[in-house]
Amino acid sequence: MTVARLWLRTNRRIVAFVGLVTIVAAVGGLLYASTVTCDPNLSQAACERFLNANPPSTAFTGVLALLPILFGIVLGVGAVGRELDDGTATFAWSIAVNRRSWLTERTVQDAIATALLGLACGAVNAVIVAKLNPGHDIAASFVGYGLWGPILIARGLCGYAIGLVLGALIGRVVAAVTLGLIVVAIVTPIALIVGRAFEPATIVPGHDRSLSDAMVVEVGALAPNGTFIAEIDCINYAPPDLTSDERDAWISDACPAIASYLLGSQMPAVEVREAAALGIVVLLCSGAAFAVVANRRP
Amino acid sequence: MIVPVRLAVRRLQLELLICLTASLLLAAGTLFLANAAAYTSDVEPVPSWIGLVLYIRGALLCLPVLAGVVFGASLIAAELDQGTSVFAWSVALDRRRWLADTAVAGVLMVLAVSVPIAGVTWVLGSSMGAQLDATSSPWGVDPSALLLIARPIAAFSIAALVGAILGRSLPTLIVAILVSCLVLGALEIGFSTWRQAEAAPIDLSTPSVLYVGDRLAAMDGRLLSDQEASAAAENGAGYLALYQHVPVGLTPQARASMLACQVGLTLVAGAAALLIAGVLIERRRPA
Lengths: 298, 287
Prior knowledge:
By secondary structure, chain A is an alpha+beta fold.
């Protein structure tokens, strides 16, 4: 209890600020999702687009999805980088048992706080996304993927670990936070790609709009030999001696549009794999941070 | 003025290096992606990497603003946070002059980061077209090159003001990001509403037009009002036999005048923030 109180006192400003923004975004998002309705003239597809893509929906869910990452980076940089920037690291290390235990104490509390914020934001966003997508089982759907659920915990912890190592390396708070934001902006989409890269895609003829729970991986054409290729490559199969009209007719006949999808039921596997990729980043960065702190000159 | 500016740039060389490297990499990556998108756009395939286009567009808008906030927080708040402002003020002619020198250094660094990105956007908008052109943008934010320069300057000034109030670098960085997003977002929403109201049918092949969206029009080209469009939609899919969807947006002339207004208002907001920061710094106790 004393440890938690001390941690809260040390980080009271950032906790108060993030807490305030979280509450405002959560209340605003929940109220908006509970009250928004579609124009009765809109088709079902247009209504779904309206509910998910209009500015209030994206603003509230976007803020809640980004907060754990920002909070993680700031806490991570603050853990070591602020001590180095203020010049208090030497004193802090001198009264600790050793640097490793000093860093462990700090990171455990910070990581728990980041995970709790990710959990809260992920839970609130799950309710908002579910309300904005009636009729969808969001646990088996790519609707609102990445905005809700436990992946926000993984992203927050990834932001924390990146902030931790950059703070320890650079020793300047603002520069480390800036670089942290840039690195996270690169790592997050890479993890997203890794998450879906090894998942087998289902190939469906044409653009099937009924697969609204699925994620489109690629749109292309079915080659004459039955393989999935880009449309431009299929056109290259056309006989060279055709007239323009004959060529168009050949393309529409021989290169039917097909698309590959990840089905909604594959979402949990994709999310677990993305979280695992982020977990590897967390381990690497945390290990590097411990090594930097242990070997850094006072 | 040259010596204080050089010293300020030297003090922030690490932040400048980070932002400048990111800016140049993003500019180069955007050009590369635009070339690839232009190659594939003829035949409408959607390669798996095409989702990067939206991401890159977002980065083009966000990075300059982030750089502005970082320089604003580092120049003003960090000086107060580390207690070096007392010495800095004592060697300057007066605090107003110190703030002017600091602001000039900050604006120069902001320009160094934002000009490559604005240049790429200008090049793409004027000649390369393709799927990464500047005629549309995520969240309806106008990606014009001048705005990509004006917004970070305003963000720098806002961060300077927040820094003068809070006096701590890290809280300044976070609060300034939020305040900048709110101020610039409010301006963007206002001008976006104006753009919607002024939108007229456009030819998308004309250079420098700003695409706003599709609207329903009668076959003679007259745009339908919202009430007429709703009434037409009640007829179900059959209304398409009577009406057509046409791309609407701003002609180059209308776009230029609206852009001048937005750039002017953005810079005025930044100047106002800097003036208030000057007043606060002048009245601040040296401790």
